[in-house]
Amino acid sequence: MQHSSIPEKGSSSRVITEWRPEDPAFWQQQGHAIASRNLWISVPCLLLAFCVWMLFSAVAVNLPKVGFNFTTDQLFMLTALPSVSGALLRVPYSFMVPVFGGRRWTAFSTGILIIPCVWLGFAVQDPTTPFSTFIIISLLCGFAGANFASSMANISFFFPKQKQGGALGINGGLGNLGVSVMQLIAPLAVSFSIFAAFGGTGAAQPDGSMLYLENAAWVWVPLLALFTLAAWFGMNELATSKASLRAQLPVLKRSHLWIMSFLYLATFGSFIGFSAGFAMLSKTQFPDVQILHFAFFGPLIGALARSAGGAISDRLGGTRVTLVNFVVMAIFSAALFLTLPTGGTGGSFIAFFCVFLMLFLTAGLGSGSTFQMISVIFRKMAMERAQKRGGSESEAMREAATETAAALGFISAIGAIGGFFIPKAFGTSLVLTGSPAGAMKVFLVFYIACVVITWAIYGRKK
Predict the structure, then answer these.
(1) What is the pTM assigned to this prediction?
(2) Are the C-beta atoms of residues 210 and 109 closer than 8 Å to each other?
(3) In 7-107, beta strands by DSSP E
(4) CATH for the 243-461 domain, from 3.20.20.120, 1.20.1250.20, 3.40.47.10, 3.40.50.720
(5) Helices 255-285 and 418-433, packing angle to 10 deg
(6) 301-356 pLDDT per residue, tens
(7) CATH topology of domain 15-242
(8) Measured in whole angstroms, how far is the alpha carbon of residue 336 from the centre of its chain?
(9) pLDDT tens for residues 225-266?
């Protein structure tokens, strides 16, 4: 490999013109260190994106305490809209890295999240701020959810096939920790006057305390600025990953794209959907429990499990891990019915909480294993097509990397829809029947269908 193909420290060029991760000698001598550096800058950028994406789940519940008279339906709308815009934006975001480059796009997509955070901090301090303004801000927070698609696509280019599951599991799993980090940090931040110099005045509460709701949004701004700079100056772009939008669009014709989207909706969609709806669901079933003291545990376990799911799949095979995982998800979905109160009486919160922790665990594991499957499947298909038409190995590897990255991003967009669908399903079930059991029956059937699909399409084929 030419010495100039890898940028030296202090060089103005961050573009790597030659990248051969499948070459063991290259990977050990140079590739591993470069890929690791890009991964560990990507992780905090994605973690902060998840913090911003879920920001309204902490802010909306407190808006009545600072003088806003929004209805409950309006508050639920504000918490749901970031999931909708995040899911839709993941589609274009999934194609951005090959067009603009991973370093530039990571820096840009992280830096623009400062806008909704700053705006929200000022908006919550003025009780005359119209609901329409909060709708716009919540939709802008959805840009943070879209970062997942481009981040995962970017990291997939850096690692060899046998290490992609672990790398994507670390990036996605630790990135998903942003849900728990936000749920831990935001309630603490609103209790102290941190940004008084920047206009953070707070709102007096009936018990004499002060609520600095603006801090829930502003506390992320310095960190976003810091890691925007880290991405710009510390990450790399791979010339071999460059591809036009036209070169990436054929992935939409692949049947496996839609099959894996269905499976990923069951794993990551469950994770983000349960994260958004668990606290509210718990409050309706066990109103005497202070669920906000425990709500962060589920997303924490799920995020950590995602990293493990990718690494385990690299060793045992993504299909095998995914199949077993869906079986366990179906079992615990059925077990949840035994923990619910009937007619407002009975039920066990401890059992309910433990079952949900297992659902979070399996949703996280499955998110990692399904992403590992995507990498293997699309790389294999692209290599086979290139070989049939007589293309060179380098051309085949480039096409495989491009299609894999596009598939990872697009499938992640489908999975994000769960962030809206699951809380909405719980709410609709409660309105129609007074119980979430109806929604859980739908989820149970969904997981069983995933067991059948995974076994029939992937499990029976070597």
Answers:
(1) 0.77
(2) no
(3) 15-16
(4) 1.20.1250.20
(5) 50
(6) 998 898 888 889 888 888 999 999 999 999 999 999 999 888 767 788 999 999 99
(7) Growth Hormone; Chain: A; (1.20.1250)
(8) 25
(9) 999 999 999 999 988 776 666 767 777 788 888 999 999 999
Bin 242: left if φ > 0, else alpha if -120 < ψ < 50, else beta: beta
| Residue range 356-365, pLDDT digits in tens | 999 999 999 9
Q: Which helix (H) or strand (E) holds 330?
A: helix 318-336
Question: Are the beta carbons of 363 and 302 closer than 8 angstroms?
Answer: yes
Give me the residue spans of the domains in the chain: 15-242, 243-461
Q: What are 39's two structure tokens?
A: 């991964």
Q: Is 273 exposed, middle or buried (0-12, 13-18, 19+ CB in 10 A)?
A: buried
DSSP state of 340: S
Phi and psi torsions of 211, nearest 5°: -115, 110
Round to whole Å and give the CA distance between 370 and 322: 6
Domains 15-242 and 243-461 share a fold: yes
CA distance 239 to 401: 12
Is residue 8 pLDDT above 70, yes or no? no
